[in-house]
Write a structure and sequence with these properties.
mainly alpha, disordered N terminus, single chain, two-stranded antiparallel sheet, 2 strands
Length: 284
């Protein structure tokens, strides 16, 4: 076993190798010495657990919407990408709270491995809550977009898995460089856009550019491509965890990292469908 560990080539470390959770996992140098090594089956089961917990978050919102939010005055009328949304202040408070919880828990999960079973669960519940609000309130009357996004996500995940397992796409240094460059470019654009919007002189130009349908659509498509490529990196990281016989305790991190990317892809695909239909509604 020690000879295997010493001769096994370890992957290059890179901040942009994969999503934040997987990135932390790539930096772990630990091998099972008690025979309890990570396995593909258990990682798959834990990934399924996180995705099922997301469905719980969806039903939590539906329950609150039917028994609590429905009795609140719909005082807020918003226009979201071509969709007229009527909602209550209480619902917005809950949605804002879920968004904050999702951000905080994913950060904690990325830096504190031991918390992943808990923080990962909370994150998925919060993400499910946000998805449910989007599908059943923002897209009221067009809820089928949620199922359409789910179907497309399944196709994307299956396709990426096939491309990886058949060796059509290999996670090489060049692959990571391309993914890292794309991701860094998107982050850079987001930062400059945010700063530009805060400056009164440049705010009109930023609003004009980012408010353009084709610019927004293009950025969303690029985001989906980046998320799909990160999925390939996640598969490679899981292979690294299992093939290097890392301890079973890392299965939770690997599973949450994969679930995180799948949810990221779903949300971006749903956003793409919203933009397309919203623009069609505005044009009609």
């Amino acid at each position: 076993m020690s000879q295997f560990n010493n001769t096994q080539e370890r992957p290059k470390r890179s901040f942009f190798r994969s999503n934040p959770v997987m990135n932390r996992l790539n930096k772990v140098d630990d091998y099972a010495t008690d025979g309890k090594a990570a396995g593909y089956g258990r990682i798959t089961a834990k990934t399924a657990y996180f995705l099922l917990v997301t469905i719980v978050g969806i039903f939590i919102y539906l329950a609150l919407n039917n028994f609590l939010f429905v009795n609140q005055p719909q005082t807020l009328n918003l226009n979201y990408k071509g969709f007229q949304v009527s909602t209550s202040t209480l619902a917005i408070i809950f949605v804002g709270g879920a968004a904050i919880i999702a951000i905080v828990t994913q950060i904690i999960a990325a830096f504190a491995r031991a918390t992943v079973p808990v923080t990962g669960t909370i994150y998925c519940v919060a993400q499910g809550f946000l998805v449910s609000y989007t599908v059943f309130t923002v897209l009221k009357g067009y809820e089928y977009l949620g199922l359409l996004a789910l179907g497309i996500t399944i196709v994307v995940v299956f396709s990426m898995a096939m491309l990886y397992t058949t060796g059509v796409i290999k996670v090489t240094k060049k692959f990571r460089l391309v993914v890292g460059t794309l991701f860094a470019a998107m982050v850079g654009i987001s930062i400059f856009t945010f700063i530009g919007y805060l400056i009164p002189l440049t705010r009109p130009f930023v609003s004009l550019i980012m408010g353009n349908f084709w610019v927004s659509l293009g950025m969303t498509i690029v985001s989906i491509i980046i998320a799909s490529l990160f999925l390939i990196s996640d598969f490679a990281t899981i292979d690294h965890v299992v093939e290097n016989r890392m301890p079973a305790k890392y299965e939770w991190m690997a599973a949450f990292g994969l679930a995180f990317t799948v949810l990221w892809i779903y949300v971006k695909i749903l956003d793409l469908l919203i933009q397309i239909l919203g623009n069609s509604k505005r044009s009609s």
